[in-house]
Amino acid sequence: MSLKKEIAWRVGLVYVFMLLLGIGILAKVLYLQIIEGPKWREKAQILSLKDITIEANRGDIMDTDGRLLASSIPFYEIRMDTRSTGMDSYMFNKKIDSLALCLSRLFRDKPASAYKNEIIKARRNGERFHLLKRRVSYIQLKEMRKFPIFRMGTNKGGFIPIQTNMRIQPHAGLASRTIGYTTQGERGNVVGIEGAFDKELSGINGIRLMQRLPGNVWMPVNDGNEVEPKDGMDVLSTIDVNIQDVAENALRKQLSRHNAHHGSAILMEVKTGEIKAIANLEKNSIGVYRETYNYAIGESAEPGSTFKLASMIAVLEDGYIDLDDTINTGKGEIMYYDKKVIDTKEGGHGMLTVKEIFEVSSNVGISKIITRYYKGSEEKFINRLYRMNLNSKVGIDIRGEGNPEIKFPDDKYWSGVSLPMMSIGYEVRMTPLQILTLYNAVANNGRMVRPRLVKEIKFHGNTVKTFEPEIINQSICSRSTLRKVKEMLEGVVENGTASNLKNKTYKIAGKTGTAQIARKGKGYKEQGRLSYQASFVGYFPAENPQYSCIVVVNSPSNDVYYGNLVAGPVFKEIADKVYATSFDIHESVEDMEIADNGESVLPYTKNSYYKELRYVLRHLDIEYEDDGVKTDWVVTNRTDEAISLKNRTVMKNLMPNVVGMGLKDGLFILENAGLYVDFSGRGSIVQQSIPPGSVIQRGNSVWLQMSIN
How far apart are CA 395 and CA 414, in angstroms? Predict the structure, then answer.
């Protein structure tokens, strides 16, 4: 082969190779574009675009009157697209000084020059998603929308606000465990109302399309969201903030006084089962009481003497005894095998009626009654307890209810002392809420209702779902038994262990409890010392029960541990507040007391502000006479036919006469006269340190004595 042909052949070979290579490349390009094109375009889009979740506004939790217990407050993260396509360089340079000055004045964290340098540097670096500020409030956001450059929006002004929500409880720690909180664990939200109604509160999240920019920064593609979030629904609870506050303060004060480890209190509406207050406080490592665990619902413990009500219902229902039957309690001691049961009174109570045994809470008396009639037929006694649903959870709205434990005679832990010990509240375990549910059933004429914490579900003010009262047991016992146990419960306060709670205003019915606390695996003694649980549970007003309440104080350590002294005062303080503020408890004007001559006795009225007093008297349809009244303040006088109103003149620079007024009106007059006021007691003003008509000057001090010390 000649050299020329050899060169031509080699060139042709290279040409063919290059042609085939080109055809191969072209084929590969066509394959990628046509066959695999959709797949790679999808991957490219995934790498440069993504959907982010826009969290829906979580619904509010409110108290029974619509006051906020938990709410989500929006905060904003402010970003700036310094290279926005619509941003004009001339306008940016002209307005940057004004924008920097506005930012500096709003946040007061750095000078305007620092803001200006920061934004200019970000623009020079081409930042499309520059962070300006975190945790910006909604009010601040509204101001920022009016700032130079920003007021032109996202496209021309580069203004990018991103919303985040923060959950708050406006009343700090008030009922915090019952209200609950949001969690991010595997089980989701499980605590309190927040957890139980998480689905309703959460709403439906939205979607926003984000684009990745150089530097791995993501920014929104569009001004709006691709899918708008839907707000969560609101939960209207049964809790009353005012009563809750009283319950927690009363409980905290008593826990501190007795140096107790923890305590709980529940107030429940008798007919509906609505829980109006639920307080749980525990002493932390530095001695401060905080709500860390829902003891009222979750702590299942031996209730002690409060369980004696169940024992008495059982034995009365079976017809074995009556209230006037007598039992010899001897010297206050009795042995059951190797277990000694004793009464708190040294030397014992001797012979007592059944009613008196319950009133003085005789352990010997109760255990003798139950042992006498149920020994050999223990299952009959236990079945009575089961028929009262005492072995079942009450099924409260929120999670965490403790299990009640009432063993049956075939249980492996049943022994010869089980029957007498159970009769007085040992070898059984119940939570405070479960005990309260039993007492509430007695107050509700035998009908046991399920305790509940939620009344309604609302969406933007409209009711979506209403929760009606649920009946657990239509009748826990007969009417005859109910009448007898009510008489005994009233007797505890009138004549027995809780006589310190007796008052002239309204009647309380209830039962004290003082139980030794068993430590798991350690018995009742720890380091040679017994720990106690003091409790009081009952209802009021006894003649027409409206509310039931239980107070439990665990491990009081200042040598006072009886239920009437430790738990009773908390019950009384809560009951006083509720009685004073619940008008439906009090008799109506139409039912006022009738005098001996057959005419109605008009109510006492304080000297007061004329217009307000006249409004009240008219509203209550009470007769009054006000002929010749020309002053703002009046003196009242009660006659047989009407309330008489007379002038009371208040003159400048002269000491007013505030005797007979309430403290609110007296303070208003005296402080408006420029006086400093101090007072002692409550009720009506009966004495003032500066005589009426004396010359006074602004800054003088006056002391007032009230009618009740």
Answer: 27
Confidence of residue 19 (pLDDT cuts 50, 70, 90): confident
Find, among 343, 262, 303, 672, the residue nearest to 511 by Cα. Answer: 303
pLDDT > 70? residue 518: no
591 within a domain of the structure (yes/no): no
Q: Are 366 and 358 in contact (CB under 8 A)?
A: yes
Q: Are residues 61 and 185 in the same domain?
A: yes
Pull the structure tokens for residue 551.
């107070």
- Coil, strand or helix at 621: coil
Contact 536, 510 (CB under 8 A): yes
Q: What is the pLDDT of residue 464?
A: 94
Residues 337, 416 contacting (CB under 8 angstroms): yes
Residues 150 and 99 in one domain: yes
Q: What is the DSSP string of 14-79?
A: HHHHHHHHHHHHHHHHHIIIIISHHHHHHHHHHHHEEEEEEPPPPPPEE-TTS-EEEEEEEEEEEE
Most confidently modeled of 72-86, 188-202, 476-490, 681-695?
476-490
Same-domain status, 521 and 639? no
Say if residue 585's pLDDT is above 80: no
CATH number at residue 102: 3.90.1310.10
Half-sphere exposure of 499 (CA within 13 A, CB side): 8
The pair phi, psi for residue 586, each rounded to 5°, is: -80, 155
pLDDT digits (tens, 9 = 90+) for 243-257: 999 999 999 999 999
| Segment 633-655 mean pLDDT | 84
Q: 392 and 330 in one domain?
A: yes
Look up the CATH number of the domain holding residue 626: 3.30.10.20
pLDDT at 300: 93
Q: Which of 193, 220, 237 is the last residue of a domain?
A: 237
Distance CA 508, CA 498 (A): 10
DSSP-derived secondary structure for 474-506: S-SS-HHHHHHHHHHHHHHHHTSTTGGG--SS-
Q: Which domain holds residue 640?
A: 608-708
- Counting residues of the chain whose pLDDT is more than 90, the rounded percentage is 53
- Please choose, from the candidates 173, 454, 510, 451, the residue with its C-alpha nearest in 3D space to the C-alpha of residue 296: 451
Q: Write b or e for each residue in 317-352: b if 16 or more Cβ atoms lie within 10 A of its Cβ, otherwise e.
A: beeebebeeebebbebebebeeeebebeeeebbeeb
Number of structural domains in the chain: 4
Does the pTM surpass 0.85? The reply is: no
pLDDT, residue 219, reads: 63
- Sequence-distant (6+) residues with CB within 8 A of 631 are 610, 647, 648, 649, 650
Can you tell me the distance from the alpha carbon of 427 to that of 341, in angstroms, rounded to the nearest whole number?
14
Q: Are residues 552 and 666 in the same domain?
A: no
Quote the percentage of the chain above a pLDDT of 70: 89
Q: Per-residue b/e over 73-98, b at no fewer than 16 CB within 10 Å?
A: eebbebbbbbbbeebeeeebeebbee
Whether 595 is in a domain gets the answer no
Nearest CA to 564 out of 484, 487, 505, 495 is that of: 495
Number of CB atoms found within 10 A of residue 519's CB? 10
